[in-house]
Amino acid sequence: MQIRKARVEDAVAMASIAESVKYREGDADPSRGYLVFVGTAEEYSDRLDGTDTSYVAELDGKVIAFLLTSYDSGGTASNVEEEEVERRVFGDSALLIDQIGVSPTARGLGAAARMYERMVEELKPNRMTACIMHWPLKNSRSIGFFEGKCGFQCIGEYHEGFGYLWGIYEHGSQGDVRYPIGRFLYVGPANELDLAQRIERIRVQPALLRAAVEKLEEDALDRELRPGAWTPRQIVHHMADGHQVMMGRVRLILTEDQPAVKTFDENTWAELADAKTAPVEESLRILEGLHARLARLIASRPHKDMLREMLHPEQGMVKLDRLLSYLDWHGRHHTAQIR
C-alpha cells in the first residue's frame, strides 16, 4: 500500500469512495462508519486544487482511501458557520480532518491509520479537530478511530439545520475527561427540523440512561466516578431533581411573561439522604414520566414559543430554546459519564 499526497486527478476516485460509504437513513451502519455530506468529483477537484494537505492510499495503482483536511471552513463537508463552532473547530490554526473515506473492499487494511500517521508526520499540526455525527446515528466507528486510536476528545456538540447533531473532537489541550460529550455549547435557536430531533432525543433519554445504569453492579452505583466526584446513584437522582426544576421552568416560560426563576445548590441536594441512598429505580421512573410529558408538551407548541424567555438571576434573560438545548445536553452528558 502506498500513501501519498492527494492530487486533483484523484477526485473521481474520491467521489466514488465517498458515495459508497454515504450515510443513508435506515441503512447506514455505525460500526462500519459513514460519510454524511459527500461531494461530486468536481467538488473534490475544487477542494484539492492548489492545496497539499490531503492524502490518498493506493493499492495496485488504485485509490482505495482518502483523507481530506482543511485549515478553514470554505467548502468543507462540516457546516461550521456559527462563530463559536468555528472558533472551536479552527481556533489556534487547527487543522480539520474533514473526511476519511475508505472503500468497503479495503476495510481492515489499515489505510486510515497510515494516512493519518503520514499526515501528522509531514504537516505536524499543533492542533487537530474532526466533526463526527452524534445523532440520529452515532458514528461509532469514526469515534473509535479518532478517540480510541488517535487520542482525540469531544469538546462540544452543535446542530446545523439538517436535523443532525455533530460532536467536535479535538487533539490538543481543550478536552476534559469530566465531559465525555464535551462542554455545553449553544449555537442559537434551532430551526423546526433540529427542534424536532431535539424533542426526540429528550423523549428517549430515560431509556438510554436506564440501559447504562442496568449494566452496573449494585456496588458500582456507589463508587465515585473520580476522586471527589458523584457516584452513579447520585447522578441519577441529580438528573431527576434537576430535570424537574427545568420542567417547572418550561411551564413558567410558556404561561408567564418573562418569569423570574431561582437557582438551587445541586451539590448540596446531591448530599441529601435520598440522593445518596434511594434506589435508582425511583428516579428512573420519575425521568421516564417527566421526559414523556415534556416531549409531548414541546411538540404541541408553535415554533415561535421557543423564543419566549425567563429571567435567570445569574444568566439574565434565557430563551426557552436555550433551556431545552441545555436539558438535551445535560441528560446525554450524565448518561455518557455513567456509560
For the record, give the distance between the C-alpha atoms at the N and C termini, rounded to a whole number.
38 Å
If you consult CATH, what is the topology of the largest domain? Aminopeptidase
Number of helices: 11
- What is the average per-residue confidence, as pLDDT, rounded to a whole number? 94
CATH architecture identity of the largest domain: 3-Layer(aba) Sandwich
> What structural class do the secondary elements suggest?
alpha+beta
Compressed to H and E, one letter per element, the order equals EHHEEHEHEHEEHHHHHEEH
Globular, elongated, flat, extended or rod-shaped: what is the shape?
Answer: globular
Radius of gyration: 22 Å
Work out the strand percent: 15-25%
Kindly report the name of the CATH homologous superfamily of the largest domain.
Gcn5-related N-acetyltransferase (GNAT)
* CATH hierarchy class name of the largest domain: Alpha Beta
Number of domains: 2
